[in-house]
Amino acid sequence: MIYIVYLLYSFFIFKFVDARNRLSFFMGAALVSVPWIVIIGGQYNVGADYFPYLYFFNNPTTDGRFEPIFAFTSVFLYDIGVIGQFQFFFFAFINALCFFVAVRKLEISRVMLFFFLFVTVSTLFNNQMNGIRQCVATFIVFLAFVEFYDSKIIAVLLIIWAAGFHYSALVCLPFFFFKEIVLFATKRPRLLLLLTLIVTLLPLGEVANRYIFAYLPDFIREETAYSAMYEGNDYVNEQVGLQFKLSKLLLLPIYYLSLEILDRDYLSDKERLFFRFGILAFSLRCMLLMNNLVGRFSYYFWLPSILPIYYYIKYLLDNKLQLKAVACLAYSSIIYFIKVIMAVNEYKYEFFV
Hints:
This protein has helices at about 1-15, 20-40, 50-60, 70-80, 85-105, 110-120, 130-145, 150-165, 180-185, 190-200, 205-210, 220-225, 225-230, 240-250, 250-260, 270-285, 305-320, 320-340. It is an all-alpha fold and about 350 residues long. The two termini are about 20 Å apart.
């Protein structure tokens, strides 16, 4: 229930935030970030890797298999007295910082709506400490995606920084051609969503191993596969379950409905581009769910995939279609609240103290 209380607290804070005012925005972001860092950083025994990471944070070294920036950061924190569980707090801080800087650069006007969708639809909030290295990289890459609109150089540097936490972030470098890729891939967005439905439901796990995963550079493949732990284990080839795929595809009708605003003079050029990127991100998030290995690359598209839903619900609210907006919001978030109420896996909370 702590997550629901946190959402209510965030709603209260953002109610008084003027997103157009930089000081007001970052004051609100700070007030929301503090409990974010405490809640996420203080989680106990979340994810399969919790205890290995906790051991590493108590005994950090740059000589291990972890990426250099992640290892160096952990060693530096250890040297200044930040050890064990308290390093989780620091990495939660990086996540919150990247998130709110990206939100500011996207010029999000309804911050509470966007934050609500981030928590309930992207599912990344509850998964931050489950695969901590890649989740930190995911937040940095999200900021990089946003930065591609203004500065390709800064965006590339951000992706390199993210790769210092998890090498798999390097697969996002082709988005150097951000606008070209987005406009080409979403030229016919309804056809793209249909293709998403078909590809996601096909059992393509073995195809992914043979034609996608096998041709990645070794250092990316090994870190993504956690080969040190799973070499020779059936986990690496295990198909993503149909039930899990369907839980993501349930949102497809909302994305289809949201396409109506592309036919209206509502979005700015920047918003229109990121709306289309959100459609592409949703498609990649779903289509990459081939098996447990390739599916890890979908992490980088969790956050941007909420953009079309945000713009659509904002459009409904701005046009006084509150009932339809609430219905879309409820439909999009119902699975999250069921998981929180049932307290399953990452949605069950226990503080480390």
